[in-house]
Amino acid sequence: MNTQPNYDDMTGPELIAAYNALATTPVKRFATRADALRRVKALAAGEKEKAPKAGKTATPKKSGGKLVEQFEAREGTHREKLLAAFDANFGKQLTVNALLKSVYGSANIERKGALMMCLKGAAGTIKKNKLPYQIKKEKNEAKELTIGLHPAR
Fold first, then answer.
1. 36: domain range?
2. What pTM did the predictor assign?
3. DSSP label at 76?
4. From the centroid of its chain, how far is CA 22?
C-alpha cells in the first residue's frame, strides 16, 4: 500500500508545507511549481537535501579578451563592449563616434555622456586595481576627440 501523498494534486502552499515537513531547511516559496514538485518528490524518495543556490557563483565567460578579464567586466555590459573595443585597438586612439558605435551600436551623440561615465568607471578600475594602463584623451587633426587605452609608462 502506497502511503505517499499525491504531490501532483497539491497546491503551491501544500507543496511548501510538505517540503518543510521533510526538509531540514524550510523554504518560503519555490521559483516554479515544477521545481517544487521535483524537490518534494526527491525528499520523499529519500534523496539528500541539496543546499539552495544563492544566485550565480560562477564567473561568466568573457568574450572581450584579456582586458575584459583584467577589468572583471560583467558579460553583456557597456563596459565589456568598451573594453572589447579597446582590446581590438590597444594602443590606438579611437574617435568618440567609433567608440559609440562599438558600445551602443550607433554613433548617436546623445549617448556621449553615458560613454564618458563608462570611461570614468574604467579609469576608476585602473586606479583601484593598479592596472598597468592609462586612458588618453586627445584631439586629432580634424579636431575630434579621440580616446585610447595605452600601456602605463
1. 8-44
2. 0.56
3. T
4. 35
